[in-house]
């Protein structure tokens, strides 16, 4: 199975490369941002023609939520138009596309977990740009929405929390935003599993168990052998300084379609967190 991976240098892409190395049935072409600029339509087409993949895992994205809010053109160029270029070039070589999307396509107002059939209503530029990208996925493609992505590579909240804990005696995190942390090592394996199947449409894939950012911060400190009582809770309204981009209050995605497939469910996030903290420290 020939797989082309975009965004191979990102935190998820790095773990997809690691996971593919242990699968002899996978012939992976892994392209970093400096090798594949998704905003370059002709360049994307040339690279896809050369690689001739069966499946494209499209993980390249502008994921800096607050930067997206201040530069909508850049967010749309990468997440919207860039995805259109990927889908177009994949179609020319007969490859199906697996597009990695986000919980931010929802506004967070629902009081129960979001299922795949819920109507998206993004509240941020980042969410709108990723939803626009979803709109380019053809009838033979698969949108994989995930949430609160963390891993040993790249920028994420685990690293932010550990760094803050080194420099501050107390930490303050919001307790009115909830979601499911998803770890890239687990998600990478699942993406490769899905590449070998023919599922289409939209699928939510996350690690198990929902938590607030306040609760997650406490678990990160516990995992690192630090005192979780150093963490205090606040509301989003009380957070200072406020974040430029609005965050969904409820980011919990229900793995409704993924569960019955017969593939291994992603585990509770805590063992994955422990492994990540151990790797970072």
Question: In words, what does this structure look like?
Answer:
The protein has a single domain, classed as NAD(P)-binding Rossmann-like Domain (Rossmann fold, 3-Layer(aba) Sandwich). It has helices at 11-21, 41-51, 65-70, 72-92, 125-134, 157-167, 184-195, 213-223, 269-280, and strands spanning 2-6, 27-31, 55-58, 96-102, 142-146, 149-150, 171-174, 178-179, 182-183, 201-204, 211-212, 231-234. The longest helix has 21 residues, at 72-92. The protein is α/β, with parallel strands linked by helices and 281 residues long. β1, α1 (11-21) and β2 (27-31) form a beta-alpha-beta unit. The protein has a six-stranded parallel β-sheet with strand order 2-1-3-4-5-10, sandwiched between helices. It has a two-stranded parallel ribbon with strand order 6-9.
């Amino acid at each position: 199975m020939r797989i082309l991976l975009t965004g191979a240098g990102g935190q998820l892409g790095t773990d997809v490369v690691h996971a593919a190395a242990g699968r002899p049935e996978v012939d992976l072409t892994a392209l970093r941002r400096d090798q594949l600029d998704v905003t370059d339509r002709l360049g994307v087409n040339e690279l896809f023609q050369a690689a001739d993949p069966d499946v494209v895992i499209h993980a390249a994205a502008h994921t800096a939520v607050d930067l997206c809010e201040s530069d909508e053109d850049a967010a749309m160029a990468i997440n919207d138009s860039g995805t259109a270029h990927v889908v177009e070039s994949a179609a020319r070589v007969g490859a199906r596309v697996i597009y990695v999307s986000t919980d931010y396509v929802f506004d967070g107002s629902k009081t129960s977990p979001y299922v795949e059939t819920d109507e998206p209503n993004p509240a941020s530029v980042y969410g709108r740009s990723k939803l626009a990208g979803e709109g380019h996925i053809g009838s033979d493609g698969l949108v994989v929405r995930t949430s609160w992505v963390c891993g040993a590579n790249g920028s994420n909240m685990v690293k932010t929390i550990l760094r803050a804990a080194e420099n501050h005696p107390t930490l303050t995190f919001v307790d009115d935003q909830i979601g499911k942390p998803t770890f890239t090592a687990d998600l990478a394996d699942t993406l490769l599993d899905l590449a070998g199947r023919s599922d289409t449409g939209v699928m939510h894939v996350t690690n198990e168990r929902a938590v607030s950012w306040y609760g997650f911060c406490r678990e990160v400190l516990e995992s690192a052998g630090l005192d979780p009582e150093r963490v205090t809770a606040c509301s989003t309204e009380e957070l200072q300084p406020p974040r430029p981009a609005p965050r969904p209050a409820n980011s919990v995605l229900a793995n409704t379609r993924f569960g019955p497939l017969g593939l291994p469910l992603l585990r509770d996030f805590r063992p994955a967190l422990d492994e990540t903290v151990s790797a970072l420290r």
